[in-house]
UniProtKB/TrEMBL annotation, chain A:
Family of the protein in this entry: Belongs to the ABC transporter superfamily.
SMART domains: AAA
Gene3D superfamilies: P-loop containing nucleotide triphosphate hydrolases
Domain ABC transporter residue range list: 2-232
A molecular function (GO) term: ATP hydrolysis activity
Top-level taxon of origin: Bacteria
Protein name: ABC transporter ATP-binding protein
Automatic annotation (TrEMBL), chain B:
Organism of origin: Paenibacillus faecis
TM segment ranges: 25-47, 67-92, 113-141, 153-173, 185-205, 261-283
Protein name: ABC transporter permease
Coiled-coil annotated residue ranges, if any: none
MF (Gene Ontology): ABC-type transporter activity
Amino acid sequence: MIEIKNLCKTYGGFEALKSVNLTISKGTVFGFVGPNGAGKTTTMSILATLLAPSSGSARVGGFEVTEYPHEVRKRIGYMPDFFGVYDQFKTTEYLHFYGASYGIPRDERERLIPQLLELVNLSDKKDAYVDSLSRGMKQRLCLARCLVHDPEVLILDEPASGLDPRARIEMREILKELKLMGKTIIISSHILPELAEMVDEIGVIEHGTMIAQGRVSEIQNRLRVKRVLHIRVLDRAGELAARLKDEAHVSQVLHDETGIHVHFGGGDAEQSQLLGGIIGSGYQVISFHEAQSNLEDVFLEITKGGTEHELAQHVD
Amino acid sequence: MNWRNMWINPVLDKEFRLRMRTPRAAVSVLSYVLVMGLLAMGIIYVMTSGGMGQAGRIDPTSSRMMFYALSIAQLVLIAFMTPALTAGVISGEREKQTLNMLLTTQQSSATIILSKLVSSLGFITLLIVATLPVYSIVFLYGGVSPSQLLSVFIFYLFVMLLLGSIGVMYSTLFKRTMVSVIMTYGTGLIIFLVTGLVFLFALSIEQAQQYAASGPPQPYSWVGYVLGLNPAGALISILEPSFSESAFLVNGGNFQAKAPIPLWLEFVLVYAVGIVIFLWVAIRKIRPVRGKRFRPERPRETGGEATDKVMRKQP
């Protein structure tokens, strides 16, 4: 559905995007993560036909964005990271305006708009002026606006930014529904653990370069060289912690009241051997497990290291 | 055929609604009519207090002078109002962060630009129409024909279109409304003031040269062309057709001699080209990605993902 090849964007002498490659298949929810200024918004703006790339290709539904922007616009619903609303409109008028702007006939809009307001939980605000809505409501209204022409692709740039926890949860629930509806969604967010629950794939971008892309589990697996083992023993924890420091594949050992945290560089076999050795040495093990890394850890791990090439070298 | 749908596109509909929903719209109309009314009263006061014509009464000639004065005043007000109302139409949307969402809709660049322009000009037209009762004072005294009034109003529309298209162009080119407004007023100043000053300067030189020249007099002078670029000059030539001959310094000894072109006609022809260029630039520049003009037969990607299949799965 979305295909980006060698996409570059230069502002003056600054390279915002450096040969970005990305493929997102239909129905995928793609989490676009990266620190501020990494190139997420630039990539999304190019896909939304709002920015011309310096070089490279970006296609939505097979249509090159620079050649057939009209066709691309039919297929996308774009929600910018910062957006304004027409305050003097009522919510229904607001959606009518955008519906009409996409060429949807009035009678169809009359049928569609109550459904959209229901989807984003704003049915009770249908006659309210947009000005009177809270920020979270405006975000949801903007999401409804993206859906008014039933696009195949949703490009959502930080849709949860600036929202309180409740509004974030509401937004997340709506996005889950959209996922069930089969929409292809590109979503960027700083709230990475929230993304982990709903995205199929993530792409990590930093300094305009895609440094990792793939299924969340795949990327997590690739980073398991850095697994952290959490060990609890009945007694002699301090002694075990000191002893573990000399074990093979152990890079760091931390000991606190919750137990022993071991940064372990070995694989599954080495991990099993380590457990056997601890038990064989007479320690009474209560628990021995690998700490679950979430998407935030993955992100921090990747962006700490640098490029995909460097990462691959590290893995090897 | 639904005529409303044919003429009122979504952007125009939105602009009309939103503009009239703000208190600023009513305040603008009130202020404008108030200023025009005060000007008219001031002019009447000056004319009836013995300054012009016969003291204490207004004859048709005085009434016509009053109409001219009001028309010039209206032109000056239009010159002030139009940039203020048009120079922020695109940059204002950009500043309010609504432009990007508008640009991702199916509305064409031309529709967006022209609708914005038409809605702004529509509002200025409303202001001018609202001043018609002030003009009715002139009709009380006679001396002005309805056709003259109509010609002047059509000329106003053209001047509005000119300044409006300049405002919309700058509004598209510059991200900040303040810069766009300053540039529009600056360009307006060149059109209104600089052309007039250049004409006066050129006129003094030309008259001095004609006085010094010994050969047969030229049928007309080129300086009229300069005044033809000035809205006030063009307006006066509509009110007083003989003004074109005066501006071109047509040889007074030859009664058949005429100005090469009426000032208002030169004004309209020259600036019509300008309007087209300004609007063309605005339409070209509003979207960074323009694409090809023709529609594709089918997408290059296989799998039929880009068909017009509608995926209606509303909850």
